[in-house]
Amino acid sequence: MEKLVIEGGRPLAGTVRIQGAKNAALPILAASVMAKGVHRIQNVPDLLDIHVMLDILRSLGCKAELANGTVTINTALMHSSHIPEELMGQMRSSIFLMGPLLARFGEVRVYQPGGCAIGERKINLHLLGLEALGAKVEESGNRIVCTASQLVGSDVFLDFPSVGATENIMMAAAKAEGLTTIHNAAREPEIQDLQNYLNAMGANIYGAGTDTITIKGVPRLVPVTYSVIPDRIVTGTLMIAAAVTRGSITLENTNSSHLTSAIHALRRAGVQISIDGDIIHVCCHGRPKAVERIVTSPHPAFPTDLQSQVMVLLSLADGMSIIKETIFEGRFKHVDELARMGADIRIDQANAYIRGVPRLYGATVEATDLRAGAALVIAGLAARGITVVEQIHHIDRGYDRIEEILARLGASITRTDVSTSTAAWTTGSPAAGKLVSEA
Ligand SMILES: CC(=O)N[C@H]1[C@@H](OP(=O)(O)OP(=O)(O)OC[C@H]2O[C@@H](n3ccc(=O)[nH]c3=O)[C@H](O)[C@@H]2O)O[C@H](CO)[C@@H](O)[C@@H]1O
Ligand SMILES: C=C(OP(=O)(O)O)C(=O)O
After folding, report:
1. Which top-level enzyme class is recorded in the Swiss-Prot or TrEMBL entry (predicted)?
2. What separation in Å is there between the alpha carbon of 327 and the centre of ligand 1?
């Protein structure tokens, strides 16, 4: 089992280029099946979830390869719209194929998707949206079969602006007959990126980025070459990593307009941020300030995907901060792990009360999900002594070789498969931080 071993206390310094966005690349790769032929998707990060998506596409008869940040997919010879249960269960984003496969084949057989254990994560809004376009949905146990000889445009009202449901419905509607309007649509930048990709293929969609998206169905889409937007969550993660280590870093290939609320929150915490086109410079001198209240909410509010990471910053701040998580009911699992490193955090339902401490201490901790794992890495960078982060396959779902990025910025971080039984690390106290024995 691989782990990350971090020796904390080094201020990050230097420049890195931000990877393409996982949450934009995944629906785009799914949408490619709607146009027969060869697509080239550029700026795709090398992540576990991307490889799962490519495995699913191959299982359906596509040719799909990732090389040097470009995925080349040939969708011409697809023979199936049945996704194997084992692949469906490996990530949440497998559900993105439902709308596109239904649009192409008139039938799709899938299973409940997997993904991070951060909440119940139902798919009822995806299914209701497809039903509104005329699909017949049959659920039996874990299995879902959706059929529609011809999807027909309709008004779809989402009870909640679900990112995935908005994307699934947009993709299915792109080839439906007539006009679809999605009301209370999610407004995330990744939805705009999907709209841009679909429109490049010949779709007729506008309104992404607002809460009303209109899709005029077209009979045919054609393959294109397209480049994915930068990852705003990786950008935010590195900004916080720089701040907690009191470092100074430059991030290239960013889009700061996708991070307005996060930048505002970080500035309130005393982090200095300057923006020059697609470059963001971040530095932090001295202890961060407490922030009275951060509330996660759908875009453009503070993103839930940065909640765990910003909690580390506030754990080290001068004073008491509150974070309210409104998107996922199970997204505070990192709190117990941070407590093992000396953080003082109390949870009351959806609120985390964070009393800043002057210092965190290295410990052996477990990544319980993707962003929780990123938060523990950040905590390890700031902590005194050695931190060992276990279960890092979660982190590999969303960060393209996180240890290489951070090492380039001067962090002491290595990936190892040394088992806890063969190494003993002294962690968790002011005197901690040395590897004392290795078999
Ligand atoms: C691949 C991808 O893009 N993942 C992102 C996407 O996930 P995802 O698309 O799964 O997130 P949603 O916006 O759909 O989920 C938000 C909330 O709505 C609920 N819900 C969702 C769908 C549904 O049919 N029924 C329902 O009740 C969920 O349980 C959750 O409480 O948006 C989340 C919220 O910004 C991010 O954290 C994820 O990183
Ligand atoms: C929750 C996330 O991803 P997913 O929806 O793919 O589980 C995330 O990116 O933080």
Report:
1. transferase
2. 8
174 membership: H or E segment, kind and range:
helix 163-174
Write down the architecture of domain 3-19+230-438 according to CATH.
Answer: Alpha-beta prism (3.65)
Homologous superfamily in CATH for domain 22-225: Enolpyruvate transferase domain (3.65.10.10)
| Domain coordinates in residue numbering, the chain | 3-19+230-438, 22-225
Q: Is the backbone peptide bond immediately before 298 cis, with ω within 30 degrees of 0?
A: no
Q: Is the CB of 422 under 6 A from ligand 1?
A: no
Residue 116 annotated among the catalytic residues of the structure? yes
Amino acid 116: pLDDT = 83
Q: How far is 439 from 245, CA to CA, in rounded Å?
A: 32
By CB neighbour count within 10 A (0-12 exposed, 13-18 middle, 19+ buried), where does 232 fall? buried
Please indicate whether residue 428, judged by its CB atom, sits closer than 6 Å to ligand 2. no
pTM above 0.90, yes or no: yes
Instruction: Give per-residue pLDDT as tens, 145-172.
Output: 999 999 999 999 999 999 999 999 999 9
Mean pLDDT of 18-28: 98
Q: Return the SS3 of 189.
A: helix
From ligand 1's centre to the CA of 186, what distance in Å?
A: 10
Q: Mean of the pLDDT values across residues 114-142?
A: 94
Q: What is the ipTM of this complex?
A: 0.99
Computed over its alpha carbons, how large is the radius of gyration of the chain?
A: 22
Q: Decide if 209 contacts 229 (C-beta within 8 A).
A: no
Q: b/e per residue, 214-228, with b = 16+ CB within 10 A?
A: bbebbeebebbebbb
The tokens describing 89, both together, are 């269960």
Q: How many residues does the chain have?
A: 439
HSE-CB at 128 with a 13 A cutoff on CA atoms is 15
